[in-house]
Amino acid sequence: MKLTLTLSFLPSVWAIARNTPPAGAIIVAKSGADYDTIGKAIMALDMGHFVNQTIFIGAGVYDEQVEIPALRGRLTIYGETSDASSYLNNTVTVTHNISAAQVEGEITATLGNAAASSRIYNINVINTHGPGPKALALSATATQQGYYGCQFGGYHGTIHTQVGGTVLFAKGLVSGTTNFIFGDYARVWFDHVDIKARPLPRDGYITASYRASSNDPSYFVINNSTIEATSMEVKPRSCFLGRPEASYACVVFQNTYMSDVINPSGWSSWSSTLPSTGHVLFGEYENTGPGSQGARANFATELEAPLEISDILNDDYKTWSQVYPADTGGRDVFALSSVIVKSSHLHALEDGHCPEIDFSYADANEIQAISLAKIVLCDVEAPEIYFSGNINRRQVLIQERLLGVALCVAWPYLTREQKLSFKEQSREIIHQLHTIKPSEKLQSRSHIVPDPNILTNGRINPLEGDMLFAPIENDTDLSFMHNDFTQSKCIVDNDTIVGFVDWEMAGFFGWKTAGEIHRRIRNPQREHFVNANLSEKRLQDIMFWNNLYDEGVPENHGSLIADRA
Fold first, then answer.
1. Greater confidence, 375 or 23?
2. pLDDT of 561 strictly over 70
3. For 164, phi and psi rounded to 5 degrees?
4. Domains of the chain and any CATH numbers
5. DSSP states along 503-519
6. Residue pair 517/464 in contact by the 8 Å Cβ criterion
7. Has residue 240 got a pLDDT over 60?
8. Largest Cα span, the chain
């Protein structure tokens, strides 16, 4: 199977682990934090001043109904995860059970968000009510909201948007049965979102636009996404792309894979007695898969060109919709044509200075590590570094963008045999790197270019610091290790790992230490999902990458001495 995946609206295929709270964040956790519920953290926010605020939520299942009020400043909420580039490793779930049989429809939402310019990352939001009356997971009622790497699960009416503005969903998952993306007065863009149809005795409908007039700006666009069933219980051809809750509905699916769960007609009227199709725009462009084929309804439109994100979210969307922004002191990562740029230029200066972590050691480490890696990696590329230095008092790194896609992007589409093959290829790469040994003068664990402030400047979390630099060391096999060998660092093409990126944490460590860092820091733990009600098969897939080092130290087939060490 050849992997051909188009990446759009992604500043990077690099993963960003969020295992520790950013500086100044309000912390929520089951124990030992500022608050033990999300609602208490929301109540602690400053409601009256123009301040930007952050909430960090630790792993766990939080059974509560969360209401975020209107705020004057920007609110950012992070869920703990080992890989923020996807929803697959989310460890935070907010869940509640309430339906329109008990309260008014929109009040059923597990998460209600009335905060403009808010951004939410890597949180699962579930309404567990099940089939029947409307039971929302999310009600978004303010403009310029972004949801990244989030899962939204429900049945009838999973996501409701009524914001008088714009909303972005990226790299997430939405599941439901009936009208599970609905609303009006909102221009909404879904990018690289997995849409899952749940089983239902009758037909299902993904979208239900309530655009009642030509003056309503409402628009739903689903771009570069996938539509599949949640299980074999969902009958083929049982789900429609949408139906019009009002007669001016505007919905477009483009560059999206559609499984056979989609009915060949594609679209449906609202009902036989109230079709509401007189002025709809139900458009499609360059979709693929069996569900994209068939004679579409006579009120559907085949578009001649795709819509651009700026058409829907306006030209200023980049100012509020960073998919993977850095924490305070960090650097954002952008993909610009054939290069990757790491920079903090979008972060505000404080008193004329950028409150930025000193990345000079990290960048120097990456340059030296790549130079070493290229000695032994014959068929696997490491990126060229084109520039490392300061521009306008900001630390900037510009490097080659390798061709291919990140393994974490391809992962949901792979067979088990392909996953096993990529794991074995990764082990071979680790073995090749392991042949590089430090010079005799290096007797303890170390990065290639040691950072004297790494334990205090926020580059690594305290647990990793303890594991790497504990006074008592038991590594007798110091060797060159990438030390961040996650799926997001593997660049793949045509069933082969063709490149490896992000070498800033590389150094000389023992096999046991590298394995412990990999299991405990870089990847999710089983205990994170103890209350998440996941199947054993799903848990095993989440943990699939954790045992990369478990086969033990490879046999010595010769070694190289690194002069730089």
1. 375
2. no
3. 65, 30
4. 84-312 (2.160.20.10), 332-400 (3.30.200), 406-562 (no CATH)
5. -TT-EEE-HHHHHHHII
6. yes
7. yes
8. 84
